[in-house]
């Protein structure tokens, strides 16, 4: 009996060994194995090579379309495999997957709510998916590419994009989606391509106007209202098949002053005051639409002036007109002294109040033809200062968007010529007095640091918001005229990317030029690597790769999205800011004209010797986008080794980081010895080798041999 029992135990043990063999012998993470088993079952057991419904080793046995890094599944690529069934809810259990491409199959059902939060490229296009887009999409904050086009999805687009700052391509075309674009769409700061064609989407396109789109397709929808002016400048904008209200778009180019356009007489003549209504009842229907109260008064005054001229001598007529113009101007501004002198608003009561600057330029005066008679009735702004001045040819809402001090000339340029470089309406104009108040008179306690262009000070607004004020040195300021500085501020104001410090405003007073930025972070990468030993020890390998990726994305935006491409010119670890979550914000973007406006030899020593991050071609006076690629390679070397780009305290052969490191990048043993000791070996050898390879390509001596930024970004993405 004992032998029988023993035999049964041995038999059961052998059976269990056979059943559990796929798990014991495999190298794949068991959670990934179970997730792929479930996916295989939900897809109705398709004929995929080596796939199993139970157990197996996807990484070790190289399952068809499955790609791994060590024991983790990082990519599923099964496009055009004639797959059916539905998607399993366990898809979200894949904790390391980066790319999922199941496009051009026959997969039905709805999109599961449990999706992998690590996915960056997700394509389900060309299937038979139904239902709505799940709200849980909001958790996929690392997405770069999302394609759900050519399905049967319905319902609205969820308001789930509040943290989607990295999404580049978004395709929802050829579905049955309805409703308006969600408000969080405006947060897609990195979005380049958006395809929404062939749906039933409605509403306006206002949430898209501040995005940096290159490709926008909204054809065959139900969008209405005016098309935002900024969208018309998108290189590839397709909009046919929508009931847009083109009459609204046609209003700005007309000769009607902006404050008259929304007047009640334009939309409901019967609701006007008694006097204009009585006048309009004697005219035709067309005249009712044209003759507003303001126009009638203007014409009446002109006719009175003509009658006066006919009844008086030329001398008396000129005398009367001079008195009339002087009286009106003095009543409104206190400075308009005669018909031959333009109003000087700099000395008017408006200037100290900080509302409008330099309004005395030609377009402002010319728009009123020298008449200030109707200005009090034409102005609709509640501000008393505006009510005393002739209204410039500028739509009032644009002025009100500026939070601190509207810049009238910039806004006039923006309206009159959309192609010119107008400063963004969200950028504020500060006074020296206000910045002194916010920085405690630029005290040492608010001093952040000194750069090649000047000092940086921390500023705190009354509400508690922190800003960083870059006070350009006198030498730098003297190289630029005020017009050149405003053009520079205009360029910087249009840079909008999650990894670039945003320009909040500027100051141009008393010959001083200051740029006011969002407070990008608590420390710089240079400080974290070379000054803060405690934080340096916690700076893990994965975090370093993410920092390199954030910096690379910023340069990719400047070089491949901005048109024309923008050279940074001073890319180094001290210009890479890190917030409390160690998210990268690159500073000094767009300031290259200031760096190169003086003598190149004067700055070359600062860039090459003091910092060691400048490309070798800088010595010959040339600098390009590829030079920034070289500087990125130097920053990555800092992340790899923990060393400074140029360190005089080290032996002579090790002072220049690049020259010391290049011979060691492809020697496995030497590479391991040059890694930052604070990492204490907590990294994968394969990851280290890939990182070194990217660095080696970036620091090539010849600029033409260095890779494009998009290639570097993709290589770094594959390492995460």
Question: What can you see in these coordinates?
Answer:
Keywords: Leucine-rich repeat, Membrane, Receptor, Repeat, Signal, Transmembrane, Transmembrane helix. This is Protein kinase domain-containing protein. With 720 residues, this protein is of the alpha/beta class. The chain has 4 domains: 2-249, Ribonuclease Inhibitor (Leucine-rich repeat, LRR (right-handed beta-alpha superhelix), Alpha-Beta Horseshoe); 264-349 and 361-391, no CATH class; 429-518, Phosphorylase Kinase, domain 1 (2-Layer Sandwich); 524-719, Transferase(Phosphotransferase) domain 1 (Transferase(Phosphotransferase), domain 1, Orthogonal Bundle). Helices cover 35% and strands 12% of the residues. It has 27 helices and 22 strands. A hairpin with a 2-residue loop joins strand 18 (503-509) and strand 19. Helix 20 (541-561) packs antiparallel against helix 23 (625-641), helix 23 (625-641) packs antiparallel against helix 26 (685-698) and helix 26 runs antiparallel to helix 27. The chain is flat. Residues 1-7, 12-25, 247-290 and 319-421 have low confidence and may be disordered.
Radius of gyration: 33 Å
Instruction: Categorize the overall geometry.
Output: flat
**Count of DSSP helices?**
27
CATH architecture heading of the largest domain: Alpha-Beta Horseshoe
Approximately what portion of the residues adopt beta-strand conformation?
5-15%
The biggest beta sheet reads:
9 strands, mixed
The level 1 CATH classification of the largest domain is Alpha Beta
Number of strands: 22
Question: Assembly type of the shown chains?
Answer: single chain
Task: Tell me, rounded to a whole number, the average pLDDT.
Answer: 75
Unreliably modeled segments: 1-7, 12-25, 247-290, 319-421
